[in-house]
Design goal:
The protein has 317 residues and is an all-alpha fold. Helix 5 packs antiparallel against helix 6 and helix 10 runs antiparallel to helix 11. The longest helix is centred in the first third of the chain and has 35 residues.
């Protein structure tokens, strides 16, 4: 779902569906007249008028299908979750005490759909681009839902013993997890501002390590979120810092006794970080092609998964 969302964004397909019908919008246009009606709705949007004014109906279908599949997959996930949940509750497989955490997952999924439409609406008014704040919030919510599901799954697969306590490395692992999360959030702002399209050189940004205009906006805090050069600069150095911290963490963890399931995960953390850095640099140098941009986002979630796994394995040992 997250990867398809990234592809939808990178291909400029996210604003192709200009209405939101959670229940009745399951079926796509089924006739030529329906396609024409939907295309005419799109022609009223800023994206068509300012960016895609040469689009034919055939071109429109090319971007429509990606956004349609993204929304359809969201609805499908809701059903795949809800129907087995009702069955398991009815059969008594899920205790009453555990209901809240599963209902929370379902509620977060529904709110994510609302947040997605709230994001799309920002690009249907004046500017042919969605708000980068809303896009980042949509990305963060996706990671949050995933983390919630993953943590519950790990707790079922690896239940803690009654006398379990936190591993000495837990606090440092939590700090590393926080750093990875901040880097992911900064990547959302890079995506929302299309900041990866500028300064497509590495390690320099243009002709210097620190490009001009990092504090061009006033007040200064706006540069962290609205200045494309600053946002890319921050993401670069956050990513480099995260990689160095992971390298140090991996090296020091080799001298510490760990649970048997943790050691391979720490090795995987390093391997995934190396892959992510290579993908990030390649994505930047090639000015964010769809394949590399999607892969970079996918591996970000993989790295997030591995650090979550490590964190869970050290929480109660």
């Amino acid at each position: 779902m997250v990867v398809l969302g990234g592809v939808t964004r990178l291909t400029g397909s996210g604003l192709s569906m200009v209405d939101w019908r959670p229940l009745m919008g399951v079926l796509p246009p089924m006739s030529d007249s329906e396609w024409q009606r939907v295309f005419e709705m799109y022609q009223q949007t800023p994206e068509f008028q300012k960016v895609n004014s040469t689009f034919s109906l055939h071109d429109f279908k090319g971007i429509f299908w990606l956004e349609y599949l993204h929304r359809l997959l969201g609805r499908t996930i809701g059903l795949v979750f809800l129907l087995p949940f009702v069955f398991f509750v009815a059969r008594g497989y899920i205790s009453r005490q555990a209901w809240p955490k599963y209902l929370l997952m379902f509620a977060l999924g529904g709110l994510q759909g609302l947040l997605g439409w709230y994001m799309v609406k920002s690009g249907l008014v004046d500017r042919p681009h969605v708000s980068h704040y809303r896009l980042t919030a949509h990305l963060v919510a996706a990671f949050l839902i995933y983390a919630c599901m993953f943590w519950v799954a790990m707790s079922l697969l690896f239940p803690a013993r009654p006398n379990a306590a936190k591993h000495p490395l837990y606090a440092r692992t939590l700090g590393l997890f926080t750093l990875i999360c901040i880097t992911v959030v900064s990547g959302g702002f890079v995506a929302g501002l299309k900041a990866g399209k500028i300064y497509n050189t590495f390690p320099l940004m243009g002709d210097s390590l620190v490009p001009p205009g990092l504090l061009a906006l006033d007040p200064a805090w706006r540069n962290l979120f609205e200045n494309s050069a600053t946002v890319q600069f921050d993401h670069r150095w956050l990513a480099i810092t995260t990689f160095v911290v992971i390298l140090i963490y991996w090296y020091r963890s080799r001298k510490v006794q760990m649970p048997s399931r943790t050691r391979p995960a720490v090795n995987a953390l390093l391997h995934t970080a190396v892959l992510q850095v290579l993908l990030g640099i390649s994505t930047l140098l090639f000015a964010v092609p769809v394949f590399l941009g999607s892969a970079h986002q996918a591996v970000a979630m993989l790295l997030f998964t591995v650090i979550l796994y490590v964190l869970h394995s050290l929480r109660r040992v």
